[in-house]
Design goal:
Layout: H1 2-30, H2 36-40, H3 47-57, H4 63-76, E1 78-80, E2 87-89, E3 96-97, E4 102-103, H5 104-139, H6 144-158, H7 161-175, H8 191-225, H9 228-235, H10 240-268, H11 272-277, H12 283-292, H13 296-324
Antiparallel strand pairs: 1-2, 3-4
Helix pairs in contact: 1-13, 5-6, 5-8, 5-10, 5-13, 6-8, 7-8, 8-10, 9-10, 10-13, 12-13
Pfam families: BPD_transp_1, BPD_transp_1_N
Organism: Lentzea aerocolonigenes
Keywords: Cell membrane, Membrane, Transmembrane, Transmembrane helix, Transport
């Protein structure tokens, strides 16, 4: 029962945050000095044609009414215009790109598999490797491995992702020719070529993000291994493997889960730099193309979708916290 109350409270808070995110995102884009109706007006754009374009796109209403219409479209869908030229956007409607003549969510759906492939694969690598290296370094403090792990984590945290990516492309892609570059294949077409084409982006992201996980895990492990409950477990004769794997690691994973949820949610919203460096057709490329073409509906929909992913990821982290640490359910 307490778990259900905990989940319900987190769910209610998530819904409220999503509404605030939607409102703030819409207001920001409403204030942008660009008129999508003017972009779609055509030439010659007479005042009459501009007024008709604004009416068709729903920009002739007050800003608060536009927001309510936009919000309602997410739940019930939305129709632009009337008569035979009307365009219907089915729910959930995150907007309609009049420049690309497509539902924004359809545009997102076409790019999302690429971003998910990149983000999830890299996250698995950086969590597994980062935690494993951090734990081993903490258990062998002062060894050559510990010093190498600390030095490598400092380099990984400091080096920009685009620089590591460009070096990887130059050395591994062109000079040594051991990994393909700029050759993305759909998972449904050829799983082997799909995975092989993402090896370099995965390891570049894993190096950049995993470096911080090494530092975090090592610090948390050193602190946890000096706690009283660890000494008590050892005094009772509990095997060292159980002390580390069951008692210590469970506490170490709490901040790791939090960080993983936030970073994974952000990456799913669009790993702009990494996708651009490796020429991957993901959400990051869709965002940049929308900026260049001043496609505000697409830009608004992508930004809002990314915000939703981050908020949902945080909600999942909160629920996971309650499972890993029952004390969190009491707060």
């Amino acid at each position: 029962m307490r778990t259900l109350r905990f989940a319900a409270a987190r769910l209610g808070g998530t819904v409220l945050v999503l509404l605030v995110v939607a409102f703030c995102t819409y207001i920001v884009f409403y204030l942008v000095p660009s008129d999508p109706a003017l972009m779609a007006c055509g030439k010659p754009c007479t005042p009459e044609n501009l007024a008709l374009a604004r009416e068709f796109m729903g920009f002739d209403e007050p800003w608060w009414q536009q927001f309510l219409t936009f919000l309602g479209g997410i739940f019930t869908g939305r129709t632009f215009g009337t008569g035979p030229t009307a365009i219907h956007c089915t729910a959930p409607c995150f907007g309609y790109s009049f420049q690309q003549n497509a539902d924004v969510l359809e545009l997102i759906g076409g790019r999302l598999p690429v971003t998910v492939s990149l983000a999830v694969g890299a996250a698995v690598l950086w969590v597994v490797l980062g935690v494993a290296v951090g734990v081993y370094a903490a258990l062998h403090k002062g060894s050559w491995f510990d010093r190498a792990a600390v030095a490598g984590s400092v380099i990984g945290v400091s080096a920009p992702v685009y620089l590591v990516g460009l070096l990887g492309i130059l050395v591994l892609g062109f000079q040594l020719d051991v990994v393909p570059v700029g050759n993305y294949t759909e998972l449904s077409e050829d799983p082997v070529r799909w995975a092989w084409g993402l090896v370099l982006p995965w390891f570049v992201l894993a190096f950049a993000h995993g470096a911080f996980y090494v530092k975090l895990t090592r610090t948390q492990m050193l602190e946890t291994m000096s706690e009283d409950f660890i000494r008590t477990a050892r005094a009772k004769g509990v095997p060292e493997r159980t002390v580390v794997g069951k008692h210590a690691l469970r506490n170490v994973l709490l901040p790791v889960v939090t960080l993983t949820g936030i970073e994974l949610g952000s990456l799913l919203g669009g790993a702009v730099i990494t996708e651009r460096v490796f020429s991957l057709p993901g959400l990051g490329g869709l965002l940049i193309d929308a900026v260049h073409s001043r496609d505000l509906p697409t830009l608004l929909g992508c930004t809002l979708f990314a915000g939703f992913l981050v908020v949902v990821a945080n909600a999942v982290v909160d629920l996971s916290y309650g499972l890993l640490d029952p004390r969190a359910r009491l707060t």
